[in-house]
Each structure stands twice: as C-alpha cells, then as structure tokens.
Amino acid sequence: MILETDEVILRNFKNSDLDDLFEYAKVEAIGLNAGWIPHTSKEDSSIVLNMFINDKNTFAIVYKENNKVIGSISLTKDIFRPNINSKCLGYVLSKDYWGKGIMTEVVKKILEYGFYTLNLDIISVSHFKDNIASKRVIEKNNFTYEGILRNSFLGYNGMVKDKYIYSLKKIEYNDLRGYYA
User: Fold this and answer.
1) Please, what's the largest Cα pairwise distance for the chain?
2) Per DSSP, what are the bridge partners of residue 60?
C-alpha cells in the first residue's frame, strides 16, 4: 500500500530503510516523546525495522524532496476497545522535520486510509503531557479529548507518565469531510 500527500509518500518499510530509521531513532527527544528507548546501534533499529516490515499497517514516512525516511506512522490494536472496529494511531517524526506541518498532513492521510480502506469506526491516539507538538497535531486533526489515563505508562527512564487520550469516530470524520478535502 502506498499513500501520498503533497510532501511525503507513505509506504511499507523495507530493509534499505535501516540507516534512515537509525538516524532519527537514536535521538533522545524522539524516544522520550514516543515512549521508547533511543536506539544505541543499528542492531536496535534492525529489530524494530523487521517488526515494521512485517506490519502492513505501519508506514514509512518518506520525504519527497530528498527521498529520505523521516518517520513512521501506524494503526495498531486499540487495547481499550477490544470488541470495537477500532485502531490506535501512533507516529514519530525525525526532529529535523518538526514544526513544518508534515505530521498533520500525514495524519490526515492516515485517517482517510483508516476510515475508508480499513473501514474503521473509531481511531484513538494519545500523547504524553510534555509532548505539545503531538497535542497540536491531534487537535488540528479534530480528535475529541477523552481524558487522562493517569500513571499509565512506565518510561524507559523509570518515569511514570500520564497519557492524554483522544478519539475520532468515522461519523465525525464524515461530518468534517470539507475540512479534510
């Protein structure tokens, strides 16, 4: 599956993406915001890359201008809605590309894919308190704030964090079609 926006191509990961994945995954700020340990070696990235390759709902974000993988976006099992036709959105973007509106554009495309290709009824997403950039992406894509899941995540650095939870239902997305067009 290949999806495209003005600035990026979303495609499945491949083995040749290892160097680009390692380049952004080794940055501490990325790991802190995403909730995983920054990669310390290409072997770390290779393990993750193999998981991404085997997951057809995880996409590499390829910046058209330089054909570089600058992040990932995925729709995974929503553990809080096990019997509902739902997925949980997760994304990460290289720090070099923050603040350019790229992730907002990418999330819009993934919502279209989730609601119309996967025929989902609801998509959830969350962020940690200090990840204001992710909060802005979520709000710009019209997710509804559901609340705080307190002390719900133990970070790799031993810090316990709250998750701020949001969702968007297909019926709401349909009502916003003019916004997404």
Assistant:
1) 45
2) 11, 72
Q: Which residues of the chain register pLDDT less than 70? A: 31-35, 155-156, 178-181
Q: Show the tokens assigned to 58.
A: 């995880």
In 3D space, the residue among 85, 88, 107 whose CA is nearest the CA of residue 171 turns out to be 85
Identify the residue whose tokens are 């096990």: 82
15 secondary structure, DSSP code: G
CA distance 173 to 122: 9
Instruction: Report the distance separating Cα 115 and Cα 77, nearest Å.
Output: 15
Indicate yes or no: pTM above 0.85.
yes
Q: Distance between CA atoms of 27 and 79, rounded to whole angstroms?
A: 28
Dump pLDDT digits (tens) for 77-130: 999 898 999 999 999 999 999 999 999 999 999 999 999 999 999 999 999 888
Encoded tokens for 61: 């974000």
Three-state SS at 114? helix
The domains located in the chain, with CATH, are 3-180 (3.40.630.30)
Q: If you write DSSP's letter for every residue of 32-78 in order, what string do you get?
A: HHHTSPPP-SHHHHHHHHHHHHH-TTEEEEEETTTTEEEEEEEEEE-
